[in-house]
Amino acid sequence: MTTEKTCNSCNDSQCTAQQKRPGEREEDFLERQVLLSRMCRIQRKIMVVSGKGGVGKSTVAVNLATALALAGKRVGILDVDIHGPSVPKLLHLEGSQIAASEDALLPVALRYGDGNLHVMSIGLLLQARDDAVIWRGPRKYGAIKQFLKDVEWGELDYLVIDSPPGTGDEPLAVAQLIENADGAVVVTTPQEVAVQDVRRCIVFCRQLELPVLGVVENMSGFTCPKCGELVRIFGADGGRAMAEEMRVPYLGSIPIEPEVVVSGDSGKPMVLAHPHSETAKAFGRIVRTLLEPELRAATERPVAARDGALSRIAVPVTGGVLSSHFGHCEQFVLFDVDAEGKSVLQTQVLKPPPHEPGTFPRWLREQGATVIIAGGMGSRAQSLFAENGIRVVVGASSDQPGILVRAFLDGCLSTGANACDH
Ligand code: ADP
After folding, report:
1. Residue ranges lining ligand 1, Cβ < 6 Å
2. Which residue has a Cα nearest atom 14 of ligand 1?
3. Segment 333-344, tens digit of pLDDT
4. What is the rounded CA–CA span in Å between residue 254 and residue 58?
5. pLDDT tens for each residue of 263-277
6. Could you tell me the pTM of the whole model?
């Protein structure tokens, strides 16, 4: 049954809050509606993500949000990094009491000139400063969902979301629950390892069809206060080179400054405490770039055109057509595509190894696959493919593989519900 109703917030009958998904339980549908209706009142939702922890993701999220508030915008910052929520500390809000209305949690409001910064962190809900969140599996997903659903933001220009690091279940849950986010800012450091992690992170965003707004390289070099020489402690320009290679915008670099640590510890973001510092200037440039309409246009291209890595597309097949569940397929057809992603150069049919969780993503990576077109696929399998650098397109219909790949390359592959039975 599809519920026909106009969203209370956006009055858009196309709003996904209105459409009950096939097989969706009534209570899940109602919860999703509440979350999406709250999100509909926010103009732009930007997720700040990273391939791993410790690269300065929260520092970047807090400074971006504060810089936007200082520019007179109505801004929210949502800290959903459930294992290391650091936003309360970075904004000197540890121990703040959360106000609640009958059915919602109300963010803590800070005022900066004409702008506002509304803060909500999972850390503010924990009893003691050192409490760790130890939810596991489905409870973790449920807890993240409830937390996201319960916060009443009101009307905002921007919501900056400090996501959990990596490409596992937690960032996946956040990205899937905030269905209509505008895009992700990916934070990395110049070292090769962090850069490899961030490659995975970009593939992960693509798999979720979350546009990558751009890459920020943090801890990008240290200017000696005595002689003025720039010392590239963690290497040079890894983030820029990687952004070029992955064909995503490069938003800029933030230097290492000892004051960043001091300002973080004292709860006053650099853009507020030291507005003339190199770090604050670098954030100013990044915010200006994020506000540019061209960047928005660039990230709103169709999925197929946005992805530079289409070279080998895998389709699981049974009886000559797409398998409704990839794990039970008889064979994989692999399509090699030209550099422009326009035409198929050759195809290969391969029998897969016996199906065990995690086998197919690894095996397909070894075969050089970069995309899999699937009918149904569970979220765990999707993240395993993402970890192996393979983008997943789910919900394709049971057609011949050649027809599906042609439609995908032409940007007109229609996908329906993810009919996963797992
Ligand atoms: P993440 O959210 O990725 O785990 P944080 O934002 O918590 O990382 O930063 C980790 C540590 O690095 C903090 O102590 C922070 O103050 C410090 N830090 C972040 N960016 C810089 C920088 N540009 N210069 C110096 N120290 C930084």
Report:
1. 50, 53-59, 86, 218-219, 254, 256-257, 260-261, 264
2. 261
3. 999 888 777 788
4. 13
5. 999 999 999 999 999
6. 0.70
